[in-house]
Amino acid sequence: MPDTPLRKITHDRHMQIPLADGTRLSARVWMPEGASANPVPAILEYLPYRKSDGTAERDAGMHPWMAERGYACLRVDRRGCGDSEGLFDDEYSETELQDGADVIAWIAAQDWCSGAVGMQGISWGGFNSLQLAARAPDALKAVITIGSTVDRYADDVHFRGGIVQSDNIGWAATVLSWFSMPPDPELMGDTWRDTWLTRLDNTPPLARIWHEHPTRDAYWKHGSICEDFGAIRAAVLSLGGLHDGYRDTMGKIVANLSAPAQGILGPWGHKYPHVSNIGPSIGYLQLALRWWDHWLKGVKNGAEDDPAWRAYVVQSERPDTGADHRDGRWIADTGYPLPSASWQSLTLGTDLAGALPRRLAADLRHGQCCGEFFTFGFGPGELPDDQQADDARAATFDGDALTAPIDITGRPRLRLRLAADQPRAQLAVRLCDLRPDGTSMLISMGLLDLRNRNGFESKEPLISGEEIEITLDMDETAYHVPAGHRLRLSLAGSYWPFVWPEPVAAELTFTAGSLDLPLRAPRDGDEISFPPPVSAPGRKTRQLREATGDAETETDPQTGRISYTMTADHGRIEDLETGIITASTVRESYSIDPADPANTEVHILWTRSFGRGDWEVATTAETRMTGHADRFTITQRLDAQEDGQPVFSKTWQDDVPR
């Protein structure tokens, strides 16, 4: 905490930023009083998620706190979203990134800005912070990126190991709903309604677009900073959670950037580290202040000398799909891969006992214990369950009881020889902690479309019965396995509902392999800690309807069809400062016929509303994707109402080759 007294701040809900084509983006801005006479550095968060209501709670706790400590903090709505003008086209589009570069230049030129700009963000904002850093605008000196990726194809919600994720359609359904709300009439004025209807009519068919690019082509390379890590000149602090889908990014940042870079891997879900649904949370704002003070103000506080790698090693615990805390300890190292770690190789069939060769028929029930890609704390069932049921549906290889504890700190690597009896096949790999109480706790996992065994820019069909060799890096982990526990490696040919199955189930034959584990013993220098979370006072709200959630898996006794259904009511909330009332619900259902994997279906229904007083608009966004042997059929429908009266309806239907 700085010794200087806190500064009084101003707050503007609708500062307009002009772009070259005449479009104006809307910014919510907090800054110290008198900044025009005594300029301050600026911190930008640039998102499509509606500053007036979507991120209002989070923003209220962060940006005023930082502004009181001498920063101009801007939360800018992306073009075509929230209170900004224009039309939305796609995530991380050239338009979005050029607008972002123009916003940075505009901020740096204002009389209240010192000329130094930083960017922060989680998820979308974490992505475009890195993407804009790769464009190296002169004013952008530092970045804090959270829950993001360096590779849009390999490490986002769309594909994993070349396999289409269920979240590819799930995210398209979410975006369809999120971006269906209008700008705030109090800010935009009389043009709000025409703006809203024009946006709805120009909604891009993202569900189709994302499924049309099954390989790592130019579409995904755009915005993937791994194409040229050296382009980034700004200092980068990268954070993420062990229980988030984006857990591999921090290591890639530290390992590949030539600019100053640090990574922090915590126990968190897909949240800012001071408000994570999975603790222990940390004092993110104090950490960020230290970063900004050094890189934006030139304060000699030693931030540049903090450990390049900090990670929270979680303890072995019974699986709990709704866990809100993980016991563990922090470690620190000077780089990534961790210089103080060493590799231990375990051979399948000996060190990890199990018969080889091993044939495994596909069991499409495998994956029901997987948990969610994103963990927000919206309801039960988000975290991986006890893995025993999935273990029984896989080929397992078990180690002996450990005579001494180990810490697995990094990305386990599998080297495997196998064959398939179909031209297309998948591999799902799980590393588990077999606990003395009989439970099986997921440590790490990995996925691969075997047609991508030689890379992700094209898919090479398999030859039935022909043996291939693959190397697969599993997800980042930091996990303590106590003495007396055993390791289990599980191999399977599908992982539904996490990823979409192939249209014909393949039988796999495993002939040989080894598992390489990055192990690191505790050492001097690990005694690090973070301050506890702090924040500015939250916004004042009134809960008009409580949030609820549920998840269940059912098997139809007549057809054998398996359905996984998740429902969530995010509640109804009134912002007492602005008067805005918002509500949303979602129901996602994933179903599969184990006898016919081509016959798989996803049905997602979102409802959302935005209003003030007696006035309200509402939308219903329905998404359905059905699998066939050779294609996906995707149908989306968007309906909108104002005060209960229909004002818009549109349906999109597309067939996309598999």
Overall description:
It contains eleven helices and 31 strands. The protein is an alpha+beta fold. Among the domains are: 342-519, Sandwich (Jelly Rolls); 541-576 and 579-657. The strands form six sheets. The chain has a ten-stranded mixed β-sheet, sandwiched between helices. It is globular, with a radius of gyration of 25 Å. It starts with 8 loop residues before the first strand and ends with a strand.
Whole-number mean pLDDT: 96
**SS strand fraction:** 35-45%
Biggest beta-sheet profile: 10 strands, mixed
Query: Kindly, what is the distance between the CA atoms of the first and last residues, rounded to a whole number of angstroms?
Result: 54 Å
Helix content: 10-25%
CATH superfamily of the domain at 342-519: Galactose-binding domain-like
Strand order of the main beta sheet, please? Answer: 1-2-4-3-5-6-9-10-11-12
**CA radius of gyration:** 25 Å
CATH class of the domain at 342-519: Mainly Beta
Query: With helices defined by DSSP (H or I, 4 residues minimum), what is the helix count?
Result: 11
Number of strand segments? 31
Uncertain runs with pLDDT below 50, 5 residues or more?
none
Task: Assign the CATH architecture of the domain at 342-519.
Answer: Sandwich
Shape: globular
Structural category: alpha+beta
